[in-house]
Amino acid sequence: MTEIRLSGYGGQGIIKMGYIIGKAASLFDNKSATMTQSFGPEARGSACSSQVVVSEDRVLYPYVNIPHILVAMSQEAYSKFESNLDKEGYLLIDEDLVKPGLTVAGVKMYSIPSTRIAEEMGNKIIANIVMLGFFTAVTNVISADSVRKAIPGSVPKRFIDLNLQAFEKGYEYGQETLNKQGK
Amino acid sequence: MTEIRLSGYGGQGIIKMGYIIGKAASLFDNKSATMTQSFGPEARGSACSSQVVVSEDRVLYPYVNIPHILVAMSQEAYSKFESNLDKEGYLLIDEDLVKPGLTVAGVKMYSIPSTRIAEEMGNKIIANIVMLGFFTAVTNVISADSVRKAIPGSVPKRFIDLNLQAFEKGYEYGQETLNKQGK
Q1: Phi and psi dihedrals of B98, rounded to 5?
Q2: Model-level pTM?
Q3: What is the ipTM metric for this complex?
Q4: A13 close to A129: Cβ distance less than 8 angstroms
Q5: S-S: B156 plus which of A11, A28, A66, B173, CB 3.0-4.6 Å?
Q6: Residue B159: its chain A contacts at CB < 8 A?
Q7: Do the beta carbons of residue A128 and residue A14 sit within 8 Å?
Q8: B137-149 per-position pLDDT tens digit
Q9: Which value, in Å, is the radius of gyration of the alpha carbons in chain A?
Q10: What is the 8-class DSSP label of residue A88?
């Protein structure tokens, strides 16, 4: 079972990212997945977070306490959630939006300029999908092919191609990152 | 406790609608709320559904079985979920996208051309927020003021005004609908 927290600010498409992960995992990777929002005080202001549980078996308890993977797309989200990350977990950040502090030795940190890449592609709004591609490459929770299948039914029709391109950009960036590390 | 199912097709912003309802209820109406996606076979193809539970107390079980309110923004979603609606529940539809069959006598059906209204405002993509305004007016689950507060942190900055206007359009349409019924 993999517990994931995706976080950033409202309007970044954080929840859409979780939705596509869940869909990819369950419909095309034959796993089970649940996405949950609970709207505690931490949802105040511009913070936005989405919890996804991906499992080989049926998900009985959908809430996430200590995620194994944290994606942070804003400084506020990073500050709020970093301390709850599993001590051997994965931390994925947008490197232009998050300046991380010291991390626990066991945490594997990966960074990508997802928003900048999206802007270079002409639309900041797909930064979440660039990050999704990066996530797919570095974490191995879902397969790239499943995400490619899950995207078309999850975004407005006229934006399908743009979203698929954004996914590939992030995915390639993730693969290059792993290659540089010799993994 | 009110169990709500929002449904339509991917890209309509169904989940965003649920997210704003949850945020409005919990942060500004002092209730508790949870939003859940479980990705069963029903998530295949273009169907999209989001479950929201709004409660005076803490939500312990976030899954929705027999919703009290069903919002349907596509024919497919209507066909899939209508039979599970509470027999005294509310059915809200986009009247251009859903042609309803016979409904159970106790079900209260309300219809709005949310997509057409959004198009007239220049952008089909805000049909979900027009529907959210309509939902707010006819169901009384969340207050209009809370939604007005929840929208700014939930959409991209440059679209805040457009979303607020879309909300008001749907809200007014809902109030007029109630007035015509003498409620």
Answers
A1: -125, 125
A2: 0.91
A3: 0.85
A4: yes
A5: A11
A6: 11
A7: yes
A8: 999 999 999 999 9
A9: 15
A10: T
